[in-house]
Amino acid sequence: MGEETSPPGAAARIVLAAIEAHGPQSRRQLASSCDLPTTTVTSATARLLALGLLEELTPHRTAGSRGRPPRVLTLPARRPVAALVVGHQTLQAAVVTVDGVVQAGRSTAFEPFESDDVVGPACDLLEQVLQESGTSSRDLVGAVLSLPRPYLAGHRGPWRAGGPTGGRRWFTSDPAPELRRRLKVPAVAENDANLAALGEAVHGAARGMRDVIHIKLVPGLGVGLVVNGDIVRGARGQAGELGHLQLDEHGPVCVCGSRGCLVKVLNNHEIVEALRPSYPQALTFEDVVSLASGGEPAVHRVLGDLGRALGPSMAASIALVDPEAVVVDGSLGAGAAPFIEGLREAVGRRLPPYAAQSVRYLHGVLADQAELLGAAALAAQVHLYRRKPA
To answer: Is the pTM of this model over 0.85?
Structure first.
């Protein structure tokens, strides 16, 4: 992927936000609109230009004007990134611009834990998307692969080959090098919950917030942490893996090797199963969301109980991270409201009042596009698009 550089600092982010909100500006205009010293703006813009996050233009001289017009700074032209999302039962491929516009996409059924390879099928699906959108692979400036497992670049997976994944090679290796080889562009891989969190923080319900916890519930529990605008991964890529905290020591055995993990309770299948006594007809998760929208008491009770089940773990996370907001998966639809109600109640019993009352609980707005837009945001942060299209 080329040399690594750290994401922009606070002043640089303020400058980027000002240009995004008000359009191209000179350095003097930025100093005024951002209320920053000129020297700070000069330093911040120099770094942003070096990273390719800004471009500098010379405006045309207007009739009657004297002297040379000041150069203005603007956001770079939209450049496409391949976003590839490996789900538990689906595979998505999309062309997304680095500023978060999905230009084209396609989804198909896929069983990743029964496959020896995820890069090949993802690239095959992407090729269909490129053909449909009229985009050439040569136009891509990078690729981001979302994985449904803990992940850290260059680090092997947390479970042994031959264990619960059946020894699938992709699960215990870093797929980014193969993705780079196949697409011939810079590429990175990332955990799906982390990308969903970054997507909501940059382009979604928590836009503009620097410290966010995102709860992914569909198809199963995953928690992503964004602190000071950046994904928190931890030493082994397992930061935020609340799904594998034990809820019931006598509960069912989990894929991780423990028993009674939260993820065994907080998933689509268990939500549907919990409602079966009240709704004997065959329910789907989409039916549950629809029933929640209609205010069905049994659905609200079950979703509220699930929020309360997650409450103790989330209270500890809030105490550690001190987020501005907790964002709940937009794919839960109307079911987010009773879930948040139960979560807020359980968290409130465990935190000091000032801490519990300062956190905002937000409904996610990106739903199944959260990982796609998180991929766009990550591409901007790690500067994949410094490589200009050929």
So the answer is: no
Structural domain harbouring 25: 10-74
> CB neighbours of 17 closer than 8 A, spacing ≥ 6?
208
Both 306 and 359 in one domain: the answer is: yes
Is 226 among the domain residues? Answer: yes
244 token code pair: 């594998």
Residue 3 lies in a domain: no
E strand spans, 121-247: 143-147, 187-191, 212-216, 222-227, 230-231
Question: Are 14 and 84 found together in one domain?
Answer: no
Is 130 in the same domain as 243? no
Residue with token string 């055995």: 253
Give the 3-state secondary structure percentages of the chain, helix then strand then coil, rounded to 5: 45, 15, 40
Give tens-digit pLDDT for 95-143: 998 878 999 999 999 998 888 899 999 999 999 999 998 888 888 888 9
> Are 240 and 222 within 8 A, CB to CB?
yes
Residue 106 parent element (H or E) = strand 102-109
Any domain includes 203: no
Alpha helices in the chain (DSSP H): 10-22, 27-34, 38-51, 119-133, 176-183, 192-203, 268-275, 285-293, 297-321, 336-348, 353-358, 370-381
Q: Count the domains in the chain.
A: 3
DSSP character for 231?
E
Query: What tens digit of pLDDT does each residue of 252-280 get?
Result: 888 788 898 998 888 888 899 889 888 87
- Does residue 96 sit within a domain? yes
Cβ neighbours of residue 178 closer than 8 Å, sequence gap 6 or more: 119
What are 92's strand-pairing partners? 85, 107
